[in-house]
Design a protein that fits this description.
Layout (H helix, E strand, L loop, with lengths): L4 E2 L5 E4 L6 H15 L4 E6 L3 H16 L3 E7 L2 H10 L4 E7 L6 E7 L8 H13 L13 E3 L3 H12 L2 H7 L2 E5 L9 H8 L2 E5 L16 H13 L4 E5 L6 E4 L5 E2 L1 H9 L7 E5 L5 H9 L2 E5 L5 H9 L3 E3 L5 E2 L9 H15 L3 H6 L6 E7 L6 H11 L4 E3 L4 E5 L2 E8 L4 E7 L3 H18 L5
Parallel strand pairs: 3-4, 3-5, 4-7, 8-9, 8-10, 13-14, 13-15
Antiparallel strand pairs: 1-2, 2-6, 5-6, 10-11, 11-12, 15-16, 17-21, 18-19, 19-20, 20-21
Length: 454
């Protein structure tokens, strides 16, 4: 039986020093090196979480034992790693970061030579090698090297600022507030904002506090606080990143959270007529309404790691966007990139000379059925969202500021109601069957949390 498994999000991971020990990480590195063969290059990076550093070093040793050379970026974001795979001609990339599910778990994200996450089939192949211990160790004189390349930040920033219209952004000199969530984006944003002439207020731009748990994605309460800061600072907008900067959520100029469905719709609304956009099955139907008016082709995928990227490549898509806050601009990279997405939002606001709230308000509307339930005072909104996600993991999506649960083939969005102890359940363009499914789920959640129906 495998001691390391695919987690709920289709990635390799486990509890630190339980399922994932340095010895296990080293053998996983040996398994990957055996798959790739000698004399190839692999790029590696991690977040600031100390266990990620420990496991990355062990993994690198395993790669070296099979004759693989490692370019180590130390602490770097996932977008930087994906960008570097193609830039350096690497055969694979590996990134270590705290898990979205448990603060004492680490996830290992593996990328192929295109910068696309490994499919589940390829991950299963890797785990079979690991389980059977069929490693091909190299001769001592052919052991791989480790090269350290701290300059990845400068290369990445230069590429991002060349990709967007830096002049129009710099002319506006925007002010924004960004929560980097204790991630290595803190080493990238100062240079990026300097190049774009952005006046920024940056939060949590340091290593994780000692003896405190950290989160892969921002908490709901931190998003509310960021919204208050945006209003107080009269900022154009705010943004919060996941710890690896692969996911992002925005706050408008009025301090309101832009949920990932509205963000997806906003991005799709700017796509050229007749283009192809790839999104996930649970992303808002509002996208389809916008696509109809722009004659866009919408391709929907399950949302497992690499799904968006592979379908973008297969269908020649111009944009990939999920309701988990992942955004892909394929002419730059085939992996989700929160930092580039932040720059693109700066570009759009500058070009259209309209506040983000106005852009959101201009989106078309669709019919939505809503109902509310209360939850106990002792719980905060983040706990409730995390708890619901854990209870419905097989049929749910964590959309950062909400959770979507698929109940009887109906997608029900569950989101906190600001400044209350209530949850709002909603379903888009509902049929009678959809409303019945929502109410069944409402009662189930109410019983689970001990709340009351409204």
């Amino acid at each position: 039986m495998m001691s390391v498994n695919l987690l709920g999000d289709g990635r390799i991971g486990g509890g630190v020093n339980r399922e994932l020990t340095p010895e296990v990480s080293s053998e996983l590195g040996s398994a990957l090196g055996t798959m790739l063969g000698e004399r190839v290059l692999v790029v590696a990076a991690r977040d600031y979480y100390p266990p990620s550093r420990m496991l990355k070093r062990a993994f690198s040793a395993g790669l070296m034992s099979t004759g693989v050379t490692v370019v180590d970026f130390h602490a770097a974001t996932f977008p930087e790693l994906a960008f570097a795979v193609k830039k350096f001609g690497a055969k694979a990339g590996v990134h270590f970061a705290v898990s979205p599910f448990h603060s004492d778990h680490v996830n290992i994200r593996l990328l192929d030579y295109l910068g696309i996450e490994f499919s589940q089939d390829r991950l299963n192949q890797l785990l079979r090698l690991f389980d059977n211990k069929h490693f091909v160790r190299t001769l001592p004189e052919r052991i791989g090297w480790v090269t350290y390349a701290e300059y990845i930040h400068e290369i990445y920033v230069a590429s991002v600022t060349s990709y967007v219209d830096s002049e129009v952004i710099a002319h506006q000199r925007p002010r924004i507030a960004v929560d980097v969530n204790f991630g290595p984006a803190a080493e990238v944003l100062p240079d990026m904002f300097s190049e774009l002439s952005v006046d920024s207020i940056t939060l949590n731009a340091h290593k994780p506090p000692a003896r405190h748990g950290i989160r892969h994605i921002p908490s709901y309460e931190s998003l509310i606080s960021l919204g208050e800061l945006v209003k107080a600072a009269s900022a154009e907008f705010g943004a919060a990143l996941s710890i690896d900067a692969g996911r992002i959520i925005f706050i408008d100029d009025k301090g309101r959270i832009i949920d990932t469905d509205k963000l997806a719709a906003l991005l799709v609304s700017s796509v050229s007529r007749g283009s192809t956009v790839v999104t996930t099955l649970t992303t808002s139907k509002l996208i389809d309404k916008i696509a109809q008016s722009l004659k866009l082709k919408i391709v929907r995928v399950r949302g497992l790691p690499g799904d968006l990227s592979r379908q973008i490549r297969r269908n020649r898509g111009v944009l990939g966007v999920s309701d988990e806050g992942e955004i892909i601009y394929p002419t730059f990279s085939l992996s989700p990139d929160g930092l580039l997405s932040l720059s693109k939002m700066l570009e759009r606001v500058a070009k259209e000379e309209r506040p983000v709230s106005s852009l959101i308000n201009s989106l078309p509307e669709i019919s939505v059925h809503k109902e509310e339930i209360s939850y106990p005072e002792r719980y905060d909104a983040t706990y409730v969202l995390d708890h619901l996600y854990s209870q419905f993991t097989e049929n749910s999506v964590h959309a950062i500021s909400s959770v979507k649960i698929i109940h009887k083939n109906t997608v029900v969005k569950v989101e906190p109601v600001k400044d209350t102890k209530k949850l709002r359940l909603s379903v888009e363009m509902p049929s009678r069957k959809d409303v019945e499914a929502l109410r069944e789920l409402r009662d189930e959640i109410s019983n689970l949390l001990g709340g009351k129906k409204k």
